[in-house]
Design brief:
33% of the residues lie in helices and 23% in strands. With 396 residues, it is α/β, with parallel strands linked by helices. It is elongated, with a radius of gyration of 24 Å. Bound molecules: zinc ion (ZN). It comes from Nitratireductor rhodophyticola.
Length: 396
């Protein structure tokens, strides 16, 4: 819809219209997000804002950064990811990439996680441009959050290099428009155990890759149990400690062949106060001293290979920061800390920008068929963004 027509619509209708446009782009992480980013960029240019586009090395993926307001004072980041998880599940009652309204809910892939937030931000742009902002708003939209926060680091690095970097980042992941002040970090790993194969009737001569993978997995599970019992703990999280578990496994070729390869994936999901890297090193050290020597005693060519799939940092509690203090009086009710990933940890760790999560919709509706966001949630988000705009505007 042309922007001129949108100007006569209410803010909420405007946000809904933007959301319909955004959902129509199939930005499943494995596809390019560039058409969506081009769409956002064209929209911003209509308001005289020239966005910065950061391409990844393939050129298929893009981040968008745009500043509204002065550059010489610290401002606030509104951050969202543009990619969505696949919509291949059965159980969609309406087409996933065609936003459909039923009973006060807007159904579509990404409606909740997290194009709803992006749509609200876009609906606010005319108002932000027209306002006399004393501090800037940085609009940041990334690629590939769902597959390990791959886009956000480039945005965080870019922001950190500004002469006056932002003082707070608000990540619009679904929190029912409550304030979330922490998020766990994650390292996703793949481990390949290389043994030797042969007829299983000669099993003692071989190094069984599955047996040894099982030993490593047992070690992971044992350590997870120790962490669950001894901490560290942070009871603001629903699961108040770090977790560690195997998640996928494959190996073997036949019932009567000793397997020479077993691969499995595992993850460490860590509290902000728990060093996941040190935990991973601890595991590797144990494996190298307790499992690997026995394998290599039998055959020197056997081994264990570790492959990092992705990692993103945890987001700590930033409520003591100056940036947060400035916006404290407009922040919604606090609801705790979350175990799912967000780009908050990236902004905080790589960009040095204190971060919090506040966004429309519920994480319970994300990553599922018939994903939806309640219209009411978009209203609350728009009201929040309105307060934020007023907070950084000159009194009229
Ligand atoms: Zn998300």
């Amino acid at each position: 819809m042309p922007e001129a027509e949108k100007s006569t619509m209410s803010l909420l209708e405007n946000a809904k219209s933007h959301l319909k446009d955004l959902v129509a782009f199939d930005t499943t992480s494995r596809y390019t997000n560039r058409p969506l980013i081009d769409h956002m960029a064209a929209f911003l240019r209509e308001y005289g804002i020239e966005p910065v586009i950061l391409l990844d090395e393939t050129g298929e993926k893009a981040n968008l950064i745009a500043r509204i307001g002065p550059a010489d004072v610290p401002g606030v980041v509104l951050s969202g990811h543009t990619d969505v998880v696949p919509a291949l599940e059965k159980g969609w009652t309406s087409p996933p990439f065609d936003l459909t309204e039923r009973d006060g809910k807007l159904y579509g892939r990404g409606s909740c996680d997290m194009k709803g937030f992006a749509a609200c931000v876009m609906a606010m742009v005319p108002q932000l441009v027209a306002a006399k902002l004393e501090r800037p708003v940085w609009l940041c939209f990334s690629h590939d959050e769902e597959v390990g926060c791959l886009g956000a680091p480039a945005i965080a690095e870019w922001l950190a290099k500004r002469e006056v970097p932002p003082m707070l980042a608000i990540i619009g992941e679904p929190t029912d428009m409550k304030l979330v002040t922490g998020q766990k970090g994650k390292i996703a790993m793949r481990c390949h155990v290389h043994g030797t194969s042969g007829h299983s009737s000669f099993a003692p001569d071989h190094v069984n890759a599955i047996d040894n993978a099982a030993r490593i997995i047992a070690m992971i599970a044992e350590r997870a149990g120790e962490i669950a019992e001894n901490g560290p703990f942070d009871h603001d999280f629903t699961v108040p400690h770090s977790t560690m578990l195997a998640t996928m496994i494959s190996g073997g070729v036949a019932t009567n062949v000793t397997p020479d390869l077993c691969s499995f994936t595992f993850e460490i999901r860590s509290l902000p106060t728990h060093d996941a890297r040190a935990e991973l090193e601890f595991l590797k050290t144990r494996v190298n001293s307790e499992i690997l020597p026995k394998m290599q005693e039998k055959c020197a060519e056997t081994g264990i290979e570790w492959e990092e799939i992705f990692a993103y940092p945890a987001m700590g509690d930033n409520t003591a920061s100056e940036g947060f203090a400035f916006f404290r009086d407009i922040m919604p009710e606090w609801s705790g800390k979350v175990s799912y990933g967000s780009e908050g940890g990236v902004f905080e760790t790589i960009g040095g920008i204190p971060s919090v999560i506040v966004g429309p919709g519920s994480i319970r509706q994300a990553h599922k068929p018939d994903e939806f966001v309640e219209v009411e949630q978009l209203s609350l988000c728009l009201a929040f963004l309105g307060k934020l705009a007023a907070k950084i505007s000159e009194p009229a």
